[in-house]
Amino acid sequence: MGKAVEQLLELGGAEDRFTYSHATLRDAQVAALNERFQERKDRIKLLAHRAKEAGITEVRSLDEMVPLLFPHTAYKSYPESFLIEGKWDRLTKWLGTVSSHPITPIETADITDIDEWIARLEAKGHLISCSSGTTGKSAMLIASQKDMAWSQRDTVAVFSWGSGVKPAQDRRMMGLAPIAHVPKNVAIGEAQIAAFGDPSRPRYRLNVPPITVGQLTKMVVLRKKMADGVALPDDIADFEKTSKQRQETLDRAMVEAAEAMVRHRGEKLFVSGLWNALYQVAVKVREMGYSGSDFHPDNCIYVGGGLKRAQLPADYQEFVHATFNIPANRNFQNYSMQELNSGMPKCQKGGRYHLPPWVVPFILDQDGSALLPHSGGEVEGRAAFFDLALDGRWGGVITGDKISLDYSPCACGCAGPSVRDNIVRYADIKGDDKIGCAGTVDAYVRGLS
User: Fold this and answer.
1) How far is CA 252 from CA 242, 273, 290, in A?
2) Which of 87, 122, 330, 350 gives the lowest tally of CB atoms within 10 Å of its CB?
3) How far apart are CA 142 and CA 147, in angstroms?
4) What is the DSSP annotation of 247-307?
5) Contacts of 308 (CB under 8 A, 6+ apart)
6) Which letter, b or e, does each residue of 393-409 get, where b requires 16 or more Cβ atoms within 10 Å of its Cβ?
7) What gap in Å lies between CA 126 and CA 132, rounded to an integer?
8) Closest CA to 88 of 126, 115, 127
9) What DSSP letter does each residue of 374-388 carry, written as one string?
10) How many helices, marked H, and strands, marked E, lie in the chain?
């Protein structure tokens, strides 16, 4: 690890990590970006290709880093045929193009599904998480044990900072949503339980089977087969039957979750989940005749992910908070994504998401090809980030989000860069999400795989 990278990552344990201004951090961040590039340019095949294509041998400015950032679609660049036809050896080779570490050989001839493929890689120390794929193919994100350890420390630190809740092991943990059973989610959940959960009070988990990566990708595979006209009637019938059974299980689980919330209403609760499920449980709690006045006055809430295209009333957040008696200063919100390893917690006073010193922000033009002028104040455009904490893959990613990055001091007192609470997805406002370098990245990866 380079000296500049080490200095920035050491701030992960500092209480004042969000107080460092952009001007204070700029030189150290550029130096750290170059250290990461020099360390990994010969280890990550896709990075080596991008550097050669752009003629970059050294990073001396944020502008020079832009061609080296990966579009978020890079982690979806595997051909769908690898999943549909079970070409696990080819999928492993594709994974090697985006990994920081050599992929340890695994036996693939007898693998029957993607969950088994993931299990064999995990046994070799390669951890695969998967995005929900709500808008298409799922992203396959490789990580290391070092990444999991960082995520565990970071989730406790950002939640405590953003909510004011100290890791005192004095709350009953209430998990109210089905969560994908992937390494990062599991690691974060374990860390939160250890830090905030009362050991004498078992965590409540929504009574549904865990969602595996295989289940997440099964829909993608079937959708592709249907589009190509090769899906068999039995495949479709089996999927419809399974979907119906899962919905019935989820409906029962929502009722059970509401009953559990009412049962433990006098205890100090740590409520977590996705907005859609949280809202459904809150509605059922109200239908049972209970509301905020019946719950403990010091509950807190951790919400992961966005709406996932769920259609909810405009006041869904206020409704959930009022139902579970979540005080304004215990409402934790976090801006992050599976492609990053670190969170950006929202402060209580300025309404902004604060970036830690080891996450370097870039505001790009709409197609992600050029850095917009960063002259201080506020700048709006396509968000890109470099997370220096990432170990298992390249830390630079161009997102699908349009954000406003503010370099001015926040009302909360922090001088570091922050993101305004007006984040939108380009796919939602433009009906499309085209990143300029995505095509060349796809072409390169497909050529190797």
Assistant:
1) 15, 17, 19
2) 122
3) 10
4) HHHHHHHHHHHHHHHHHTTTS-EEEEE-HHHHHHHHHHHHHTT--GGGS-TT-EEEE-S--
5) 132, 134, 274, 276
6) bbbbbbbbbbbbbbbee
7) 20
8) 115
9) --SSEEEEEEEEEET
10) 15, 16
Structure tokens of 233? 């009637």
Contact 279, 303 (CB under 8 A): no
The helix or strand, by DSSP H or E, that contains position 235, with its residue range, turns out to be helix 233-263
Tokens representing 291 are 């509301």
H/E stretch holding 35 reads helix 22-40
Least confident of 91-100, 106-115, 131-140: 131-140
> Token digits for 329?
């200063």
pLDDT tens column, 116-140: 999 999 999 999 987 655 445 678 8
Residue 55 CB coordination number (10 Å): 7
Tokens of 393: 């893959």
The dihedral built from the CA positions of residue 116, 120, 121 and 123, taken in this order, carries a sign that is: positive
The amino acid occupying position 258 is A
Q: How far is CA 38 from CA 223, 385, 402, 444, in A?
A: 41, 18, 30, 21
Give the pLDDT confidence of 392-427 residue by residue, as tens digits.
Answer: 999 999 999 999 999 999 999 999 999 998 998 888
What is the residue whose two structure tokens read 């090809």? 369
Burial group, residue 427, by CB count within 10 angstroms (0-12, 13-18, 19+): middle
Helix, strand or coil for residue 390? coil
The CA dihedral of 35, 337, 63, 445, to the nearest 10 degrees, is 80
